[in-house]
Amino acid sequence: MELNYRRKIATLSRINHKNFVNLIGYCEEEQPFSRMFILEYAPNGSLFEHLHVKEIEGLEWNERVRIIMGTAYCLQYMHHDLNPPIAHSKVNSKFIMLTDDYAAK
């Protein structure tokens, strides 16, 4: 578990893209044992919430295109611009966060 946590910190620290949630910091406590990441805040929640939760207002088409393009640009960066490349295994609407102006993170 400790090695996996350290790998995630190292990986998140390498990513510098406007459409990726920034790692601000992390915390390690021994008593009680806990590990946590401090990530950039995305005030409009997840894409999943906007697509599937009835109480939340839906997205306009221009917002949807912006989210798709931001996600694609970030994946391009992670797969082709980073050395070594990073493959994210959880790219789905629950893990795409939205900023105050509905940019994908």
TrEMBL record:
A molecular function GO annotation: ATP binding
Pfam families the UniProt entry points to: PK_Tyr_Ser-Thr
Residue ranges of domain Protein kinase in the record: 1-105
PROSITE patterns: PROTEIN_KINASE_DOM
Keyword NADP in record: no
Keyword terms of this UniProt record: Kinase, Membrane, Receptor, Signal, Transferase, Transmembrane, Transmembrane helix
Subcellular location(s) of the protein: Endomembrane system
Cellular component terms per the entry's GO annotation: endomembrane system
Membrane topology: Single-pass type I membrane protein
Entry annotated with the keyword Lipid biosynthesis: no
Domain of life the protein comes from: Eukaryota
Name of the protein this chain belongs to: Putative LRR receptor-like serine/threonine-protein kinase
Naturally occurring in which organism (per UniProt): Trifolium medium
